[in-house]
Amino acid sequence: MKRHAPLPARTLPSLLLCGAVFTGNAWAGGILIYEAGQEGNGLANAGAAALATDPSVLMSNPAGLTQLAGTQVSANGQLILGNIRFSRDSTNQFDGNEGGNALQYLPGASLFISHRLDERTAIGFGMYGNFGLALDYDDDWAGRYFTQEAAVIGVSLQPTLAYKITDDLSFGIGPRILYGYYRTEMAVNNNLLGLADRPDGQLEYQDTDVGVGVNLGLHYRLSPATQLGLAYTSKVKLEFEDKPHLSDISNPLLNLALRQLDVNSLELDMNVPQTVLLSVAHDLDPQWKLLASLGWQDWSEFGDIGVEVDADAAGNVSRSVDRHYKDTWHAALGAQYQATPRLRWSAGVGYDTSAVDDSDRTVDNPMGDTWRLAAGVNYQLDEGLDLHMAYTLVWLGDMDVEQSKARSGTTLSGSYRDAALHILGGGATWRF
């Protein structure tokens, strides 16, 4: 049984008031998600930089705002249900239980606004979260010395300007202000360095920071039936700095080693990665539309994010973790079917490569190659109001973990079986 209240109840209320929150980890291409906007919910991100049907396009491609008429407001909510369960194997060297379901449920929300100034110029604003993770294991689980709770949350505010250079080519720019929150909690092994039968200590670390980046985009109407989109999102640097809060450290040798370190301040630098996305949307006929996307994400620049306390026989103590992330690729195909003038169905399939090799997978962010299957429906209630619902299955499958303490060499070994996320989303778009 977990000692703490569920993580969302502890960290999210103030962010929810801002109207744009994401606290879960979609594990696709690192910890970026595609389900924060309206149309993308049912398409697995297929066509995201080319399809412009509501203001949420500014998140994927700010140039898409030129395709929208009048003033539009889009509000979206989502619920993420997870099945992330660790199972020990015969080579595991840590005692404790298996941690339970580390991701039970997480809420999210977003808000987008667009306004057409004239025939060539449009402006918009978005509050959304498409970056983050949050995991919560049992406090006495086998991996407690690596993590008990872990949260990285990013909420973006994005004013946007889009301009039609020609009748077919548009350019958009959106400065991005990212509020970042990092928190980790883990047990500290007081039995290190030859001492035994001592209860665990505890480490907590948390901080917030604000970073700035920019979203750029081009939107081109190749023909009346075909639209292309190319979008770039810059890197955003976050610098977390806080004093690690240590408690119940009863091992005198470990206490001595920790005092030799500068534990009054620990800085963690994290780069939310730059991304590139190319998309196409093509009308086969008045009812059928085909969509596709190809993307790249620069996770190798993510940074050495992570905190741990570990010691060897010489009393040397480590404090941070190198994640060894690598760049990822994303591909998606989708289709839309206009069943009636008011009813539109969407479906998509997507694939993301893993940001880590199998040997570098960790229990505070267990990532792997990811498949997405998505379906959604849009219904026009009247001329000024559309409603949207969608479901996405994010399938991670089986992921093996063999994570060792860098200095002591003790290994946590096991796997996540049939790991998956279920993302339920819904929203509304008002047109004035």
Automatic annotation (TrEMBL):
<protein>
    <submittedName>
        <fullName>Transporter</fullName>
    </submittedName>
</protein>
<dbReference type="GO" id="GO:0015483">
    <property type="term" value="F:long-chain fatty acid transporting porin activity"/>
</dbReference>
<keyword id="KW-0732">Signal</keyword>
<dbReference type="GO" id="GO:0009279">
    <property type="term" value="C:cell outer membrane"/>
</dbReference>
<keyword id="KW-0472">Membrane</keyword>
<keyword id="KW-0998">Cell outer membrane</keyword>
<dbReference type="Pfam" id="PF03349">
    <property type="entry name" value="Toluene_X"/>
</dbReference>
<keyword id="KW-0812">Transmembrane</keyword>
<dbReference type="InterPro" id="IPR005017">
    <property type="entry name" value="OMPP1/FadL/TodX"/>
</dbReference>
<keyword id="KW-1134">Transmembrane beta strand</keyword>
<comment type="similarity">
    <text>Belongs to the OmpP1/FadL family.</text>
</comment>
